[in-house]
């Protein structure tokens, strides 16, 4: 089986990003084995970060523990040693042998097993700048600094991304301007040019702009190429998130490939690659 890493179309390479470290739709999220597999293959992989009680970050998506782990309560109120003792749950809620990782655990894994050249691990920071304090920033820098080349830090709060990345100068960054009712507002106003112009102004240092794929395709439907202005200033575009392989999603993927997005976030890289590879 060919590893689900990217598509090459018309001289342009579009990467398939392993959303929440899933290679295929049935995978549980955030397991160390899948993260290391993806990075060993040279894949683009994404994990999420939320802040815990000891001023560090846990590799989790939700602020509540009960959906993803064997714990209860808020991640923010849970100590690091307690988090490390919790098990992850699979897509059905069944308990896995894999335990919750903290950011420093993830960085230690990458030190022990360095990623293949070209691999990229996205740290999607789910918090806002108000959640950051000096200890959290210092702990982030101490963990990420030695392996910063392997990461890109992203999020929707550009202030938080600037603050964390300023503590790790070698760290690549990305910005996601899509939040709340962005799609509905854009469909109502049709002002895609201002939307993307504002995003580029807000994040001049970002390497990647993350856009909901619905916004990318809605812009095209409205006659506006939202990818072009981003490429024009030397940045890359990630279109997120294709959840399943269906006739509709395959059509959407084909449109995204034709628009030459640089990365497509998906929960099923293996399924999409098998469906569309030559």
Q: What is the gist of this entry?
A:
By secondary structure, the protein is an alpha/beta fold. 36% of the residues lie in helices and 22% in strands.
Task: Fill in the keyword field for this structure.
two-stranded antiparallel sheet; Glycerophosphodiester phosphodiesterase; 36% helix; globular; alpha/beta; 8-stranded parallel β-barrel; 11 helices; phosphoric diester hydrolase activity; 22% strand; 12 strands; PLC-like_Pdiesterase_TIM-brl; TIM Barrel; 278 residues
Describe this structure as you would to a colleague.
- By secondary structure, this protein is an alpha/beta fold.
- The protein has one domain: Alpha-Beta Barrel (TIM Barrel).
- It contains 11 helices and 12 strands.
- It has helices spanning 32-41, 80-84, 103-112, 134-144, 158-166, 182-189, 192-202, 213-221, 227-232, 247-258, 269-276, and strands spanning 6-9, 12-18, 44-51, 57-58, 87-89, 95-99, 120-125, 151-155, 172-175, 208-212, 236-242, 263-266.
- The strands form 2 sheets. An 8-stranded parallel barrel has the order 2-3-7-8-9-10-11-12, surrounded by 5 helices.
- A hairpin with a 5-residue loop joins strand 3 (44-51) and strand 4.
- Helix 3 packs parallel to helix 4 and helix 6 packs parallel to helix 8.
- The longest helix is centred in the C-terminal third of the chain and has 12 residues, at 247-258.
- The chain is globular.
- The protein starts with 5 loop residues before the first strand and ends with a helix.
